[in-house]
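Per reviewer request, we include the raw input and output of the structure prediction for the construct analysed in the revised manuscript.
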Amino acid sequence: HFPLLNESPVLNGPSIQPNGSFNFICQVIYNGNDPDQVFEVVWTFNGQAHPSVPSQLLFDSERIASLDISLLNSLVDTQVGCQVRLVYPGSDVKTRFINSNTYFAGIQISPDPLEISEIDFEKNMTVTSTIPILCDHDLECCLIFTLNVNKTAVVPKRNILLQGSRNVLLALDVIPSSNSGTYLRIFEDYKPKSIQVTIKDETAYRCSMTGDPHITGFDFKFMYDLYKSGDFVAYEAPARDFMIQIRTVPCGGGSVACICGIAVRERNDVIYLPSGSEVKIEAGGTNVYISIPAFDKGQGRGICGTNDGVEDNDFTHPDGTVEPACTQRCIPDAFFESWRVTGNNSLFEVVPDPVNDTESTNGSFGRYCSCLDNTNGTATVSCSAREHVQTANTAVRHFRKLVNPNKQWPNDQGITEAQARDMCTKAIQKSPLYSQCQNFQRLIDSVISDCLADILHGGTTAFLDDVTASFTSQCQLTLAQNPDSYVTNTDGQQVIKPGVIDICPVECLKHGQCADKGQCICQNGWEGETCLIESGKGPQLIAVKSGELCDISQMKCDIINIDVTNIIFGNPLTCRIQAIDVIPSTQRYNISATKDGLIFGNDVSLRVFDGTCLDCDRSGCKVKITACHINNICYKDGDIDKFSENRTCDVTKSNSQWTIIRSEQGELTTSPVLTGPILHANKSFVFQCEVIYSNTDDSQEIEVAWTFNGQQNPASPPLVIKGSNRTIVLDGRHLQGHLGTKVGCQARLVYSESNVSTTFVASSSYFAGIQ
């Protein structure tokens, strides 16, 4: 009988020693001390021994083997480990080898492979040595890595001009010889592997929704019009948890619909999202432009289309049904209805559950932003983190009135087509870029067509500012695709000409005046980049998004979302919460906000209550008769007092006090007695568990369970004994599968009529196995 090694050896290192060497340590874990034993230590590389590295023998009390790193010549880039076995000299007895943990000793290059495109930020390649770089002198000690790359630029320019994709081979040359000692010599003639770099120069896809609203999809060459109100999926890419929804409400006298809000779901609440997606909002939210990265090609869907380069399938429904494409301007109502969202599917109604956020670069959770109606000429923005799931009572009435596609001029207000065309032309001519795009007849015809549709079906000229903004944005995009619109600056970079990008926004004209380089000079009493912020008023809170009542039994009330206006998007806000009245299970607060700590805006009211025992409305709260209100805490009917299992909330007995379940309940105070194993004459054996309890009560039952290492076996339910019987038996044959465990039993009292049970009391235990 020879002892066995049971524990794996431990590999430590690489460790630098005081004499300037460094090595790996293999520590044998063994408590015995037999002079006839010898430990054989074999060093492994990728799990295999190498003939250039001999094995080592440890005698008597020796437990440490050492591998000098100078022996790693030709073994760089391997998983170093050790394996140990017991050897008894003078006999043929050798135990099996036991392997240690391993350590990668070599050069690591990451990422591998490397892909970069216009939608990526600049990327780095990192070269890491997992073993120390040591020399035999006190001068600068280093390895020389020579990067072998052709003259092609590694980082592509991020613009909308297509320049093609190309491949670059990033390679590190063979490390040159060095006279810096034995430890650097292990890298001689070593060549790290090459890295393939693909430079992808791809374009983004763009969808525009302007006016009331007119949609140009990612692939579709004809415009189509959405004249319905409600919440719709404008675009979604399920593979990357990205979604954009729009909210439309009746406008133009109720005959058409306009975008009044946009909700974006991704990991950030800024307009330029981390994936490279872009959402541009103009004219107070009426015009929306969505640009998505090239890697979404073929992955997206929604009322903006499929962005796969195929025109015929843009009208794809969520279930995969493909509606025939229009051959001219059209109103695809069935397609729009298929993408309508309501209730919990609307980002305007419920913030969705959190998702895995491992791709976030800054470790923060994502946020969502949405807009409400344009109430006073400024944007109304609401943002919330996705882990705070709250329900909002902001449902939009579905506007089902159908627009007559055959409607003729003049419109309901008597405006003729010629008059409308003149208004639309003047709106285009107001654009600061009109002189640069006046010869783009196709663009002008498209915008005028939208404008005419607005006036005809909407019966109003309120959209004319949106027409100006829409023409300006589309003109900018057209100019940006033209290489002649770029100049080279003093740093040698291509930049778009100031006359294309530095323009004054249309919103400026409401309370300001345009100056040079697109600057907006505000009138007295107004401020902000586009002069839409009223000075001296502070943030204006519109409403609590989930309503002025918050039931803690239904949702989280510690964090709420408030729609706010008269702010500059992105500026930090501070809220002030004032408790108005505090009564048991309900509190009412006044909430206001400030952007500078000095000027607070208006107040909104919020009542927080526990709906378990209170019914609350705007006028106040009433106590429910279907719950208990004990010590200022609400309990449901049937709840058990966490401090006493003998007390419950029973609304048939009392709404204000605990009801005693049983006035005199027995308890097990003595541990059961385990006996055995008891050997019988028939060569069988059993364990016996005796419960020590003298009381007799017909309503009592004793529940006894066998335990193995303190745990019940799910396959063997507890036994119930009644009356004077106090003993149960475990046949030894039932130990199959439980050898090597501590056998015990536990018991408790059960009152089945009142559904009450005491806690388990455990016996001593007995090790049943081989020692």
